[in-house]
Amino acid sequence: MLYDAGCGICSRLARSWAPTLHRYGFAVAPLQSAWLPMRTGLSPAELLRDVRLLRPDGQLTSGPDVYRYIMRRIWWAYPAYLVSRAPVLRRLFDWGYRSVARHRQVISRRCGLATNPGKNDESTEVGRSHG
Asked: DSSP string spanning 33-44?
C-alpha cells in the first residue's frame, strides 16, 4: 500500500495500520519512494493523486479500490467490503474517499497532523504476498 508521506492524515493512518497490514501480507511504503516512478511508469505528481496499491502481479490499483482490495482480503473487514460494493453505498464510499483525498492537506493542517518528516520509510517490501 502506497501512501502520501507528505500528508498528515495519510502518514498517521499508514503508521497505525502498518502492523495489521503486514500481518495480512501487505507492505506499506510512501508514494515519494524513489523507485516508484520507474516501477509504475507514473510521474511523481501523478503518483500523489491517490493512494495506490502495487500488487504482486505488477498491477497498480488506485483510490477507493485500494481499500476494497484490502478489505476483501482481511476476514474481519470483509463485511465492509461488501457494503462498499452495494450500488448506492459504492457511490457514497467513493464520494467519501474523493472528498477526503481532495482536501487531505487542508484537513491535516487544521487537525495539526504532522507528517513526521524525519522518518523516511523507503520500504521495498512491495513484493510480499497479498493473500
From this structure: -TTHHHHH---H
Rounded to 10 degrees, the C-alpha dihedral 126/37/115/21 comes to -20
Task: Specify the pairing of strand 29-30 against strand 52-54.
Answer: unpaired
Do 101 and 63 contact (CB within 8 A), yes or no?
A: yes
At 56 the three-state DSSP class reads coil
Distance CA 77, CA 72 (A): 7
List the one residue out of 78, 43, 84, 35 whose CA is nearest residue 63: 84
Element (H, E) at 52: strand 52-54
Query: In angstroms, how far is CA 45 from the centroid of its own chain?
Result: 16
Q: Would you say the pTM of this structure is higher than 0.90?
A: no
- The overall average pLDDT reported for the chain is 86
Ordered by start, the domain boundaries in the chain are 2-124
For the segment 82-93, what is each residue's pLDDT rounded down to a tens digit?
Answer: 999 998 999 999
